[in-house]
Amino acid sequence: MGQGLIQVYTGHGKGKTTAATGLILRALGHGWPVLLVRFLKPIDPVSGEIRLLRDLPGITLLEAGVGVIDGKADRAEVATSVKQAFAEACHRLSEGNFRLVVFDELNNALHHEYLGWESVASFLRERPLALEVVFTGRHAPMQLLDTADLVTSMEKIRHPYDQGIPAREGIEF
Questions:
Q1: What order of strands is seen across the sheet that includes strand 132-136?
Q2: Looking at the 3D structure of the chain, how many domains does it have?
């Protein structure tokens, strides 16, 4: 296949994880082995895409395990979970068995300094050449944007949450 590229889905609009999930499905459809690493999202409730993806052949799922959506998680515990999940992902990816990795919500983990940029930069320098790498989440750091081959910013025009409508099962999770 040649050189894998670095993709970033960021911005305040809806659809970053959804876009990455579509890319995962496309890659799996071509027989690519995929690693999905989820940061900052709770394990429970299980989102619809995870219910489906975790049972598909060809995908490996790693979860940092500590979600921050409700704002109750301890900062040190979140940072530890992010660092451990990222280290485990780097270890698995170094073996060269994957063609695509999606780091879901890693942009926010970097923004909130749960993980340092140098850890990500080091991974990007040392990754297998054919590995396609996708980062999702708001607040992608400028260093990542400058490094990426593809950057898409989802722009929020209007969102039901602003009208008091909470996240809905099957649509937002």
A1: 59-63, 34-38, 100-104, 132-136, 6-10, 150-153
A2: 1
In a domain, 167, yes or no: no
Instruction: Say what the pTM is.
Output: 0.93
| pLDDT tens, residue by residue, 75-134 | 999 999 999 999 999 999 999 899 999 999 999 999 999 999 999 999 999 999 999 999
- CATH number of the domain that residue 148 is part of: 3.40.50.300
Residue 57 lies in domain: 6-153
- Distances in Å between the Cα of 91 and the Cα atoms of 63, 85, 94, 98, 109 are 15, 10, 5, 12, 19
pLDDT tens by residue, 2-47: 899 999 999 999 999 999 999 999 999 999 999 999 999 988 888 8
